[in-house]
Amino acid sequence: MTRAGVTRAVWPAMCVIVVVFALGHATTFAQRRGGFGGGGRFGGGSGAPILPNLPYDGRFTFARLRYGPPIPYQTQRVGWSHDYPEGEEHFTKILNEITLLEAHTEQSNVLGLDDPALFRYPVAYMCEPGRWTMTDAQAVSFRAYLQKGGFVFFDDYRGPYDWNNFEQQMQRVLPEGRWVDLDVSHPIFHAFFEIKTLDVPQYYDRGAAEFRAIFEDNDPKKRIVALANFNTDISEFWEWSDTGLKPIDESNEAYKLGVNYIIYGMTH
User: Fold this and answer.
1) How far apart are CA 61 and CA 64, in angstroms?
2) In sequence order, what DSSP letters do the residues of 116-166 get, joined into one string?
3) Which of 64, 87, 249, 268 has a 20 to 30 A CA-CA distance from 124?
4) Residues whose CB falls within 8 Å of the CB of residue 162, separated by 6 or more in sequence, listed in order
5) Is 137 part of any domain?
6) What three-state secondary structure class fits 38?
7) Does residue 3 form part of some domain?
8) What is the tens place of the pLDDT at every residue in 133-182?
9) Backbone angles phi, psi at 134, to 5 degrees
């Protein structure tokens, strides 16, 4: 898994974030996605087809984790597909504007937890892990991915049921792993942008977001293996950042967190 090409850009990055997504018309995008909040085919959402994965070429590719069987189209009924494909399309464009990663922007790759191809991608993302289920073989394969240097971040879940189910699944993956609450002093929040507070804007969740991590060997001095964005949904900001539904400053904060996660995962 290559970690080359993550050199920081030398010009004012946040200005680009503001400019890149100050475009489009909210009504047009809402119609394309089946209405705000979903309303398209297969249970709401964009109804976008799940595209075949790009062949591996060494460039950064956003890797979205799938649990359960493959599906032909994005749907709000299947949690891992939430915000696909606009969320990562917008996010990778930001990555390319402010870093030298040269990420693929045309699409992401959707990978099962036991897909051998996952080992080619240093950073992985899972949406709605509160409803995550997997087989024992998938747990073993995902454990190997994380132990061999992979980094995963989880987003878009909330409430006791979501956390309890998520924690149980992660215990199957990393039986010895222990979740630790993070504060803003951790290096992941300074890997590219200087995150000054974890009191981040909420798209619709109530209360404060919680940021938790499992460290390699449960040692906070070592690298983060898995990161949980709990009680928040930063990728919702990514998805809708071209519509004007939320202030630019709020979307920027969500982008800053995501960029930091990618840079951290690529360099640790």
Assistant:
1) 9
2) GGGGG-SEEEEE-GGG----HHHHHHHHHHHHTT-EEEEESB-HHHHHHHH
3) 249
4) 129, 130, 131, 230
5) yes
6) coil
7) no
8) 999 999 999 999 999 999 999 999 999 999 999 999 999 999 999 999 99
9) -160, 165
